[in-house]
Design goal:
The protein has helices at 42-50, 74-80, 97-106, 115-128, 146-160, 176-193, 204-210, 230-238, 241-247, and strands at residues 3-13, 16-27, 31-35, 55-64, 67-68, 82-85, 92-96, 139-140, 164-168, 196-200, 214-219, 222-227. The chain is an alpha/beta fold and 271 residues long. The chain is globular, with a radius of gyration of 18 Å. The two termini are 30 Å apart.
Length: 271
């Protein structure tokens, strides 16, 4: 059993505070839906956990099985068992998917994965996501459609088998069939590995496929409402206006979202 614990997290972006004391605990095998209006901190939370250098943590802690995540570089966080399925996956020309994934797997274990075992696992993931057979030999996301990039994120998740996977609107840009294929792959991977999931999405259908065990609504940098899957259905039917009235909170105004790329780890102010 693994545990990801976030306490009193405050995060700034360009001197503007986005997260304002967020608390969240995720355990192995759980599926947490993270909802809320755009611009209120959902992607910020995921990026800060993974270590995006644009996000400065000014207060609070993130612990993975008791280990201080904020003291880790991005690659160390990945090796420790964190995975981010990005909303805007990067294109890397000159690096094939197979070379990228085999290197990533080997970085996580003392003995390199055998070639036959690697090919077998990658072929299985490619078939599960119903992608083209030549995926292994294509450059990472180079020339991919939006839907192919999202499926490729799930291929990586299936191969790396993280303790915790964070999916940032991984369903955006997917048609109905692709949404089902991606959902089935996520469900199968979690059943096999018992990883914890933190899922950001605006679509009830995606959550219907994934069947979250927990649901949270994030407003203006804090989780203001938590519950079970019934909370997803209520938001789908009623929107978010009832939260402002019932909990006396105001939504942060949405700013233009920029594609996110990962660099060195987010730093804790004064560290």
């Amino acid at each position: 059993m693994s545990e990801l614990v976030i306490k009193n997290l405050h995060v700034n972006v360009e001197d503007k505070e986005i997260l304002k004391g967020l608390d969240l605990t995720i355990n192995s095998g759980e599926r947490h839906a993270l909802m809320g209006p755009n611009g209120n901190g959902k992607s910020t939370l995921l990026a800060a956990i993974m270590g995006n250098p644009k996000y400065t943590i000014t207060e609070g802690s993130i612990l993975l099985d008791g280990e201080d995540v904020l003291a880790m570089e991005v690659d160390q966080r990945s090796k420790a068992g964190l995975f981010l399925g990005m909303q805007y996956p990067c294109e890397i020309s000159g690096v094939t998917n197979s070379d990228f994934l085999r290197s990533a797997i080997n970085a996580r274990q003392e003995k390199p994965i055998g070639l036959f075992k690697f090919i077998k696992q990658m072929d299985k993931a490619i078939q599960k996501l119903e992608m083209k057979p030549d995926l292994a030999h294509r450059f990472l996301n180079d020339g991919f459609s939006g839907g192919e990039k999202k499926r490729n994120e799930i291929v990586q998740m299936m191969m790396l088998k993280p303790k915790f996977a964070m999916l940032d609107e991984i369903d955006s840009g997917l048609d109905v069939d692709a949404l089902r294929i991606v959902s089935d792959a996520i469900n199968e991977c979690q059943e096999e590995t018992q990883m914890g999931l933190l899922i950001v999405s605006h679509y009830a259908r995606f959550y219907e496929y994934l069947k979250p065990t927990h649901a949270h609504i994030l407003v203006d940098g804090k989780i203001v409402v938590s519950g079970d899957a019934s909370l997803v259905a209520k938001v789908d039917q009623e929107g978010y206006e009832w939260i402002e009235k019932e909990y006396q909170v105001s939504f942060a105004k949405e700013e233009k979202k920029q594609p996110i790329s990962l660099g060195s780890c987010a730093v804790k102010k004064g560290a």
